[in-house]
Structures are given as structure tokens and as C-alpha cells.
Design goal:
Rossmann fold; Transcription Termination Factor Rho, Rna-binding Domain, Chain A, Domain 1; alpha/beta; 6-stranded parallel beta sheet; 6 strands
């Protein structure tokens, strides 16, 4: 029996175009000024140190900015980049520059599952801060009360079995009581290898390829 649902964001609850056409360009446009203005802030300093550790040498602020821009352009899923993006997006959400896109079918079903007593979690390559911002400032209002917890790449890469085993342990549930939702087959493969049930979202005219997991077009077709 399913007791908890873990959902990915990009391509699952949220349009890929929102991430690539709104969030990423906004972060890239504001990153340099944000880092320069806040380099002495302990939270930003911590992430700049993490950039240097990832590169393997000490960096000036300007050198760190160059690496961060390169990582954005290459769509790297690196924790310091995701953390800094989250800080920049926070200002954008709060200023009303944009709201977080969440498909209406996802909103309706998340609310229904929460009302039915299922525990809901998010696991995304975006930072926990970015996840909370997207759902907190969503098109449908503040959805954060629906969720029991959030996971990002600090728990491990999304295509590694050990990441899902760690999540299961933190949730205090065996894998066979957890349903994981994503649009990425390799993520679903890893979750399934960890004992979780899986469903693949195939949205916006995308093709899911040869199905290795149950495939649906939206959340209305999912029955935990």
C-alpha cells in the first residue's frame, strides 16, 4: 500500500519551458550582480567556496562567476550553482517578477492525495530552497503546506540507487510503500531498483520511448 508520494518537478509537476525559458535566464541575468553584491554574506561565501572545491583550486569572485555561467550554459546539476540560483529566484518571486508554474492537474491531485492522508515529498535537482519557492509562490498560491519534506542533490544524484535508498531511510518507509513520479527514465530506474513504485510523466507532446515504467500524460491518471 502506498503511504507516500515523491514527485520530481521539471517535466512532472512543472513545465520544462518554465524552467528553461523563465527561471534559468533570470538567474543567469542576475547572477553576476548578485554574487558581487553579496560575496561577503556567509551563505554566499559558503557556495563560492563550494565552487572552488568543485573546480579544485582557489578562485576570485570573478573567476567563480565565470564557472557558474559556464555551468548554467551546460545545465550542470551542481549543488553550489543550484543554491545560488535559489537565492536569486527568491528575489524574483518576492518581487512578483514571475510565479511558479504548476500544472492544474498536479495541483488538484496533490491536494487530493494530501487530503486522503498520503505524505507528499519533492525530490529535484534544484535546491530545496528553490523547490519551496516554486511551490510557495505558485500560480495556484502557496502549496507548501501539502508537502512533508524536500530532497535535493545533497542526498545524492538523481540517477543513483543509493539516493533513493537514503530518501527511503529518512522517510522511515520501505520502498514498496513509496511512489516516485518523474519524466526521466534513468531516475525512475534508480528508484525502482531501490524498491519504489514508479510512474513516468510524458507531457506536452513528448514521447516516453519504450516504456519501462507505467506512463501517464498527467496526474489525473495516477492512482497511488
Amino acid at each position: 500500500m502506498t503511504r507516500a508520494v515523491i514527485t520530481d518537478i521539471e517535466g512532472t509537476t512543472t513545465s520544462i519551458s518554465f524552467v528553461f525559458d523563465v527561471l534559468f535566464p533570470y538567474a543567469r541575468t542576475h547572477l553576476a550582480d548578485f554574487v558581487r553584491a553579496n560575496a561577503a554574506d556567509p551563505a554566499v561565501t559558503e557556495q563560492l567556496d563550494a565552487v572552488a572545491a568543485e573546480v579544485g583550486r582557489r578562485l576570485t569572485v570573478e573567476q567563480a562567476i565565470e564557472h557558474l555561467h559556464a555551468w548554467i550554459d551546460a545545465d550542470k546539476k551542481l549543488t553550489p550553482l543550484k543554491a545560488l540560483q535559489g537565492m536569486i529566484w527568491q528575489a524574483g518571486y518576492r518581487n512578483g517578477d514571475f510565479t511558479g508554474h504548476v500544472y492544474p492537474d498536479a495541483v488538484a491531485q496533490l491536494r487530493a492525495w494530501h487530503g486522503a492522508g498520503l505524505d507528499l515529498y519533492v525530490y529535484s535537482s534544484g535546491s530545496v530552497q528553490a523547490q519551496k519557492l516554486l511551490f510557495g509562490y505558485s500560480d495556484a498560491g502557496d502549496l507548501t503546506p501539502l508537502f512533508s519534506g524536500y530532497f535535493d542533490t545533497r542526498v545524492g544524484p538523481k540517477r543513483e540507487v543509493t539516493s533513493y535508498q537514503a530518501i527511503s531511510q529518512r522517510m522511515g518507509l520501505p520502498g514498496n510503500q513509496i511512489l516516485f513520479l518523474s519524466d526521466i527514465v534513468e531516475e525512475l530506474d534508480a528508484a525502482k531498483a531501490a524498491g519504489m513504485d514508479t510512474v513516468q510523466l510524458v507531457r506536452d507532446g513528448e514521447t516516453g520511448g519504450a516504456p519501462r515504467h507505467p506512463q501517464v500524460r498527467d496526474f489525473n491518471a495516477i492512482q497511488p
